[in-house]
Specification:
The protein is an alpha/beta fold. The protein has ten helices and nine strands. The chain has helices spanning 22-28, 48-58, 73-83, 102-112, 132-135, 139-146, 166-171, 184-194, 220-237, 241-263; strands spanning 9-15, 35-42, 63-66, 88-92, 96-97, 116-124, 152-154, 161-165, 198-209. Strands 1, 2, 3, 4, 5, 6, 7, 8 and 9 form a nine-stranded mixed beta sheet that branches.
Length: 264
């Protein structure tokens, strides 16, 4: 007997100053039959009251949790995971639009691949600057991946849109909450592989990620500081000597890139 996949997914969306984005994000989820519940965790945003009004006026079934302090992205996802009731978790950013069928395809893939620890759709970034891939030397990799049609393994998945089984996520301890922002997804991918599972990208499903919109209110210098701290902690945690050295070399370069990004 074929197993039904309906109502198995708890969606967790973490917001910070995202009242202008959350409406379209939640609207894009309205046709997904796999969704059991949607949980929005607001990390003490200055516009928290506005987000609450947008959600209560237009999306009455959504659970809204208003944090009194910003506990960080990973900690907020963990908070949502602990109260979720679905078999699967789909955590995502509020600047992501989920086309029809995306989550269904991810759930079907995970159920048919026992070695899958987590999976994500192909992430389209229409607002990412054209020069971004060149600056971070990712153009060859991005081009190769965009041409793939079959699911493929990666070291880690981007936290802006990832599906994982709730029990497995909690067994892993969820995200490491010592990462306030950035690198928590790399760390999770590392620990998934340590458990003998794999991280897959499923190109037949996709989302649209309006790159940088959900963190646009954070000053770019502060982003750079947080990124540097997270990168260093990740390198120390997993004893990655090459990354430690690269972090020391790259940190001053990053300041210049932050200035360039701000100017552009």
């Amino acid at each position: 007997m074929e197993r039904t996949l309906k109502n198995t997914v708890s969606v967790v969306v973490v917001t910070y100053n995202s009242s202008a984005l959350i409406g379209e994000c939640l609207k894009s989820l309205s046709s997904c039959q796999e969704i059991k519940e949607i949980i929005v965790i607001d990390n003490a945003s200055p516009d928290q009251a506005v987000s609450w009004v947008v959600i209560t006026d237009n999306f009455s079934g959504v659970k809204f949790v208003a944090n009194q302090k910003n506990i960080g992205y990973g900690a907020a996802v963990n908070q949502g995971a602990r109260i979720a009731k679905g078999e699967h978790l789909f955590f995502m950013n509020p600047d992501v639009i989920v086309p029809h069928g995306t989550i269904e395809k991810l759930v079907a893939f995970m159920e048919s691949h026992p070695d899958c620890g987590a999976c994500s759709p192909y992430i389209q970034t229409p607002t990412k600057p054209w020069w971004y891939s060149w600056i971070v030397l990712r153009m060859p990799v991005a081009f190769a991946r965009s041409s793939k049609k079959s699911p493929y393994k990666v070291k880690f998945l981007l936290a802006c849109a990832t599906l994982v089984k709730r029990d497995f996520f909690l067994q892993l301890g969820g995200f490491d909450e010592r990462f306030f922002l950035y690198y928590e997804d790399r760390d999770l991918g590392y620990r998934i592989r340590e458990k003998g599972k794999f991280n897959y990208v499923v190109p037949s499903s996709s989302v649209i990620h309006f790159y940088g919109k959900s963190s646009a209110t954070i000053p770019i210098e502060e982003k750079g500081k947080i990124l540097t701290e997270s990168r260093w902690y990740f390198a120390k945690k997993h004893n990655l000597r090459g990354l430690k050295l690269w972090s020391k070399i790259y940190s001053p370069i990053q300041k210049v890139l932050c200035w360039l990004a701000s100017w552009l």
